[in-house]
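Board notes (copied after class):
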Amino acid sequence: MIKGNAELRKYTTIYPKTVYTINSWDDYRAYGSTLLKQSNNSKLGKVVSKGAFKGKPLYSLSLVERLMGCPKNCHHWGACYGNNMPFAHRFKTDSGLAFTEILRDELHNLTKKHKQGIHIRLHVLGDFFSKEYINFWKIILILYPKISIYGYTAHTPHSHLGLEIKNVIDKIGFDRFAIRFSNSTIKLSANSTEYKPRLIASKNVSLKSIQCLEQIDKVANCVSCALCWNKKVDNVLFYTH
């Protein structure tokens, strides 16, 4: 049985009480905390301990799953792992300009606090929701060379937003904008293990896949692994949560 309210699973999180709307600075002040959270998740880990970003603290951002950016053709639409995260704070906005202005203020302060820079997990929940929002992250990476990002998107590589994401990867480099396309046959992707037969069946596709090391207990957490933001790794395979 899939957890949660079937109606809510059609368009938003099954945990509506954990949703915070940020359309203005007043909303932000009323929320009383930050949008970017320093990781306290045992799976993610706190500080990168391997690879090019060693020593950077890990921060994350969660949007409302399904509602914010997630394409309806997402392989995990109904069974999103957000269904198992009842306590996560999720953000939604109808004003991308106000939302990104607040994010930029937070990022500016974080780069002053952490001279070595920060590594960001986008998005623990949700996805890129507009061309302008994607462009915001491109500008941030240009302005702040010590910020780096990794994550996954359910937007297909040739969709409107998928092409925008690829444009940022091309402009900035996967080294700092390590966004992998989920359940895709292109390089620098991240697929569910049940999707692997499609890879095998696909013509002219030759991806070297590596199983997520955290899921098979080969590493303690994501920050001690670094496979996902390693451009030499074609494809990372994940067990469905």
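Comment from the instructor: The helical segments are 25-31, 96-113, 131-143, 160-172, 196-201. The chain is about 25% helix and 20% strand.
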